Amino acid sequence: AMKNAVPQAASLLLEKLLLLVHVRALPGGTEGGEPPPAPSAYYDTSCFRRGDLLEVPRTLFIHFGIYLGENRVAHLMPDILPAFTDDRRQIQRVVTNKRLILGVITKTASIRVDTVEDFAYGGSILVNHMDRLFKDQVLGSEEAARRAEKLVGTTAYSLLWNNCEHFVTYCRYGAPVSFQTDKFCETVKMIIRDQRSVLASVLVGLASIICLGLAPSTALPTIFITFVLWMAG
After folding, report:
1. How far does Cα 129 stand from its chain's mean position?
2. DSSP letters along 109-150, please?
3. Separation CA 46–CA 69 (nearest Å)
4. Has residue 213 got a pLDDT over 80?
5. Longest dimension (CA), the chain
6. Buried b (16+ CB within 10 A) or exposed e, 3-27
7. Which residue in 164, 171, 185, 211 is the catalytic one?
């Protein structure tokens, strides 16, 4: 029973993490605690211009999109469904957590067009907040929108190398950049360099061996991870 419980717990943890990171909940209230989408009157789209870069701060990350006008936003989301069907009506439906998680695992995504309400999902929206970081690199608004429209469809996904931030920075500034990725990599470097992480990996490994028993599936990852952290530190 314990062996089955561990993968289930890991899957649940990943799903909860993705709920915090991304912009949608399961439709029909299948997951409790998620706020309903904001009504259309919640967002004043009259202040948005075609080609604007929209940011929605989340608990752990920021979600990005390009405003196309007429209450439409192009944004990149992990999604497994485009790998199995070309039916645009099915793909355009709300991305459930299972579709999203499988999209992350299989590195499949779609650049899709949704309403501002579906894109923001009740969060506050920042407009062109990244322009200050790129200054003279800002492309024309129409050019940014056209780039976004041209890329709509299935695409590869990578949390570090091709996420929603890479998409919008390419469209508006001409170069795919992700400051969130840079911060994440710096944090990983700090963890690796901190020798306390070696001790932590040993303790976690010993705990897994005690709970699951001594086996290659528990002992080898413990030894390998500890060795890598030690050599990289």
Report:
1. 19
2. EEEEEEEHHHHHTT---EESTTHHHHGGGPPPHHHHHHHHHH
3. 9
4. no
5. 62
6. eeeeeeeeeeeeeeebbebbbbbbe
7. 164
C-alpha triplet 78, 80, 81: angle, nearest 5°: 120
d(CA 59, CA 180): 13
The model's pTM is 0.67
Token pair in block for residue 63: 């979600």
Distance CA 177, CA 106 (A): 22
Give the burial string for 78-110 (b: 16+ CB within 10 Å, else e). bbbbbeeeeeeeebeeebbbebbbbbbeebbbb
Instruction: Name which of 138, 116, 110, 109 is nearest 68 in CA terms.
Output: 116
Does residue 185 have an active-site annotation?
Answer: no
How far, in whole angstroms, is CA 65 from its chain's centroid?
Answer: 12
| 156, β-bridge pairs | 108
54 and 48 in contact (C-beta within 8 Å)? yes
Q: What is the pLDDT of residue 199?
A: 66
Specify which residues 77 forms β-bridges with.
110
Q: What is the pLDDT of residues 47-59, one digit of tens each?
A: 999 999 999 998 7
Comparing 88 with 113, which gets the higher pLDDT? 113
Tell me the three state secondary structure of residue 63: strand
Show contacts of 86-90: CB within 8 Å, 24+ apart: none
Sequence letter at residue 26: L
CA 23 to chain centre: 9
CA separation, residue 53 to residues 5, 73, 212, 214 (Å) = 43, 9, 48, 52
Question: Are the CB atoms for 78 and 108 separated by under 8 Å?
Answer: yes
| Residue written as token pair 């990171």 | 21
